[in-house]
């Protein structure tokens, strides 16, 4: 039988990150030479083994938990040492902290025994310098031989990466059986009646060819104070902001411009779509991250037509890597700078517009205007290859991404009977992004006195009519937008979360928005802990399918935000409760995705075994949830700020201090009755309320969790 290379599971591993470095080990703190365990730095595994032993025996793990934003603590016991009774008297605490260029561990050995304790503590290490795509494919590389270092330590070097290890006061063994598994060892002698010892070792990485580095400064976004009847909201925000701090990255040539790396471990680099969505969700905390993300992507905006990379003039890239990213079993081979995304360019336009609405200063907007015009030009030309008025994509290389929306797995676009649609593909939500980008681009052009605004509004109007004529189909619950059109322009009639991204884009009218909310509120879509990517009633549904039945945190949050902004609060509250219950289940570190099982099947979400944690747009979803709860929607250029809180009788009271509008800290309070107040806002902003979309008709309300 042919051996299958399977993507390693990581749902039970403990992750620590300080981008561009991350570490993954088991719940006892061990890093074993299996699967995806290891220390990674900028797309390379720089340590594949770090196994702690006491007298050549592994301590027994008891607990693990976060220790600050970039650290973890593992508690274990050595029951064979100390007093000979059932209570353990020798304890080992392993404190792991990831740094921007490596890792530091402290081993705290403590005894409360009535007898003296003598032992040898050791850490066996290994390094394979395997590229991340090799690890992701389930393949492996042999451990490299270690080389003695000048300071009593040792290290490895290959491909321009140098890894050095040093243990304070340790003896290093690098010969013979330890050539590829070098050891650091410390003698420990603790007196009778109790005592302790602290042992330290450090890993340092030198990587001059890395395409991403740590930023030069700390985050400039606000850390708001949240007081809420539902205490889960504040706990989720605190953990999410700590993770987001750890996920910050920059390019070596511009270390001052920060963006968020997509996620640990597979995607800790620049991803256009992920970085843009995360920055957009973070706007209530300030416009700095949005501005720097826009600049980073503008510098790499496409300038030529290159089918091998997917580049086109004005197009925003999909991902940035050190080298070609190849998954041979999947037939995937992506160049280091890859543009195979259909939506990142429109998301770039929409982020620029939204940052402007939140008060991004004119001196930061103006240098980006040529890039705005180039992005709009791409939308009006290269985005519509067949000239039918809709935005489509197709991979012409045969080794790029077959699907180029956010659901980018090869089987993500399926008809209701489970049949996979054939490219070129016209995705529903992409038409919403395009409509929004055209309208937002027009507003920016008008505001700066440049021509073209009317033409883009006409583009949006034509797109709206074309979408209405081609996408709406009859489904099980009445009219619904199709997921997509296939190569023959047939509607792909499955019911999916994609249509929720249309809410708030302007592409739907009020009645259509209400109908979409009805569809998303069905038990088939919201019967899990959030919004399923595909209806449970469709032929392609599987609760652990990557894009056809699982639940994605950011997807649920984006749809929740659209529902809340549109005034469809019943469905939004259902999704909010789903995210909060998921946060509880995952220790408030929301995963990239999780299973779409029914709520009552296990009573908690089922992990998706290869999901990234932490992940940027999942962590940033906490900020979007907070914004929806207080209902804060500013328009600084127009001198208005709208208030439409989701909080109130169902979600309880919420008070937030320290959100930012145009750089000014503001406070928002929502009572348990839904009364909302805004204080400390810039003087020229006039509070108001958004118009309300009619509620769904009787009998079609969102299904509550409780």
UniProtKB/TrEMBL annotation:
- SUPFAM superfamilies attached here? Six-hairpin glycosidases
What range(s) does the Mannosylglycerate hydrolase MGH1-like glycoside hydrolase domain occupy? 337-585
Question: Can you give the residue ranges of the Putative glycogen debranching enzyme N-terminal domain?
Answer: 17-194
Q: Which GO terms describe its biological process?
A: carbohydrate metabolic process
Which Pfam families does the entry link to?
GDE_N_bis, MGH1-like_GH
What is this protein's record name?
Glycogen debranching enzyme (Alpha-1,6-glucosidase)
Give the originating organism. Answer: Micromonospora inyonensis
